[in-house]
């Protein structure tokens, strides 16, 4: 019996190992977030333990020497799923036939730079990358925008790729979602997997709204609302929200570098949920195209909503009750996104 099971296992492994590799592009691939991310992708933590991977590593020309070092390290990991690593500074090479695109690279805000200058630089980057996706990627590609301002960069990329469904584009608010879940878990002295259905509404910025009105916490085997588990409404409506909103700045102040490890983990969580779906009865936060939403959010935005995912397709969680406190915060972050969008679209038309 054991021999038969062993033989069956080997046959399954042999069949699965013949699976066609998927092509995954990571931009800003020489940067610190990518350095924390690439190993997890290449060893199967995101797209499956039996899914071969071809990694396309895209960065700007001055970073190519650094990228060569990253390629050497990936080769030296001797990862069985990693079939090839292709470093490049050319978008037509980097986006060729990709199944998944993780757009990490963007122009960071520099000292003395006005917000409009930051948007202008990023509009140029994501217009180019969106057009390259449109021309070279598979039409089924799933695109995750990480580089900030992530929501508006994602909108520009999607508008620049008209032949790819807008539903295939999303931006990363999973890091904020994870931060919110962790803060509640620590407050309740439970592990983070005992917290579900927190929501990040809106922009990946300091206006985002971390909402736990619909969240559940499992405490000693009993599931209850986050408000009942925390037993501190003042904290949930005050320090909890500001802590999540300002967490990135707090990490930079402490490390003198941005959140790389936690951002990479959130990227993995986000893409794995797209590929394999969310758990039954649970939802996660993603910045997605707002068209058709039931929450009164302007439609031509990439806005973070609660979503459930099945068959690589997200569906917004509709019908959640929204109180006046939440409404005001959801509208405030939407207003910021409208302002960003209008500035970016003006720049896009120039």
TrEMBL record:
SUPFAM superfamilies: LDH C-terminal domain-like (SSF56327), NAD(P)-binding Rossmann-fold domains (SSF51735)
Keywords, sorted A to Z: NAD, Oxidoreductase, Signal, Tricarboxylic acid cycle
Binding site for substrate: 109, 115, 148, 179
Residue ranges of domain Lactate/malate dehydrogenase N-terminal in the record: 23-169
GO process terms (BP): malate metabolic process; tricarboxylic acid cycle
GO MF annotations, alphabetized: L-malate dehydrogenase (NAD+) activity
UniProt entry tagged with the keyword NAD: yes
E.C. number: 1.1.1.37
Reactions the enzyme catalyzes: (S)-2-hydroxyglutarate + NAD(+) = 2-oxoglutarate + NADH + H(+); (S)-malate + NAD(+) = oxaloacetate + NADH + H(+)
Residues spanning the signal sequence: 1-19
Protein task: Catalyzes the reduction of aromatic alpha-keto acids in the presence of NADH. Plays essential roles in the malate-aspartate shuttle and the tricarboxylic acid cycle, important in mitochondrial NADH supply for oxidative phosphorylation. Catalyzes the reduction of 2-oxoglutarate to 2-hydroxyglutarate, leading to elevated reactive oxygen species (ROS).
Family: Belongs to the LDH/MDH superfamily. MDH type 2 family.
Annotated protein name in UniProt: Malate dehydrogenase
